[in-house]
Amino acid sequence: MNLRYVATRLLGFLLVIWVAMTLIFFLPKLVPGRDPVMERMAMLMAGGGIQAEGIERMVQAYRGEFGLDQPLYVQYVRYLSDMFRLEFNYSLAQYPAKVLDLIRRALPWTIGLLSVSTLLAFVLGSLAGGLLGWPRTPRVFSYLLTPFMILSSVPFFLLGLMLIYVFAFKLRVFPIGGGSQFGQLPALTPAYIQDILYHSILPAASIVIASLGGWALGMRGMMITTLGEDYVILAQARGLSPQRIFFAYAMRNAMLPQITSLALSVGGIVSGSLLVEVIFRYPGIGSLLFQAIAGFDYFTIYGVVFFIILAIALATLLIDLLYPLLDPRIRYQKN
């Protein structure tokens, strides 16, 4: 692989991270009259958490603690330095808890839920789409096209609400929400792991079912295009078995755009899972971000969005660098 190309891609990766971090910093500050500390104190005072006396001194103390009393350019330089050191300051809404500690507690829940459900939807949807585009597939599979088209337009959270109503509220087969049974302490035991898996079935099912349609339709279109390629026609002329042509020639080459879409879809999946985690009260990154937005907790928003952008950029970079391994015809060389 061309080292110059790799270096260029790494520089592009860092540039994307810097631009995204800059937008994250300045966009909330464009709203006129928005003071996160004052708004947080007003919310606490309205809820009876603090008294009105001395609130101005508390606001000034918090501004000094969080660096909000400094000029904007000083805040920006400090913000960039903290971001690159993964130091996101304290949470405004859950002070004195640090943002990084909150993310550490929520991140494993989201990684576990999204990694399993996304890969499962990707594999099942791609296989179903390949079968829909394969001319020797039994005709009964063609009836799946309409349901897949409907599923491709259903949001994750809407399907999640339907699953809650049917399986949790009506049938009472699964719990309505939560990551585990209320009051149960985390422990690395078979019973606790089973409880986590039991609570994650409905959130994962909403992501998998809603994603199946998009993966299937995309794979079906690529499969139909691939069947007209010369190498597939040559494989058929050589008398290779249909199974080998399907998996080794058609599916293998049609999967390349799907893999690219898998990396690009990380952002859409993460943003869609935000509402899924909220409606299921799942203790992941989505719920943490929702609570931070509701509580005007800018530092937590900065930290969560930074990790989301980092995940998307890393996934895109890795797929780009791994393409020569997935397809030997691709070579990154000097012209």
Can you put this structure into words, describing what you see?
- The protein folds into two domains: 13-84, no CATH class; 106-297 and 307-326, MetI-like (MetI-like fold, Orthogonal Bundle), CATH 1.10.3720.
- Helices cover 71% and strands 0% of the residues.
- The protein contains twelve helices and no strands.
- The two termini are 13 Å apart.
- The model has no long low-confidence stretch (mean pLDDT 78).
Q: What is the succession of H and E elements?
A: HHHHHHHHHHHH
Profile the largest sheet.
Answer: none
Average pLDDT works out at 78
* Rg over C-alpha atoms, rounded to the nearest angstrom: 24 Å
CATH superfamily of the largest domain: MetI-like
- Bin the strand percentage: under 5%
Q: Low-confidence parts, pLDDT < 50 over ≥5 residues?
A: none
Structural class: mainly alpha
> What is the 3D shape?
globular
By DSSP (H or I, 4+ residues per run), the number of helices equals: 12
| Total domain count | 2
CATH architecture label name of the largest domain: Orthogonal Bundle
CATH class bucket of the largest domain = Mainly Alpha
As a percent range, the share of helical residues equals over 70%
Summarize the structure.
Helix content is 71%, strand content 0%.
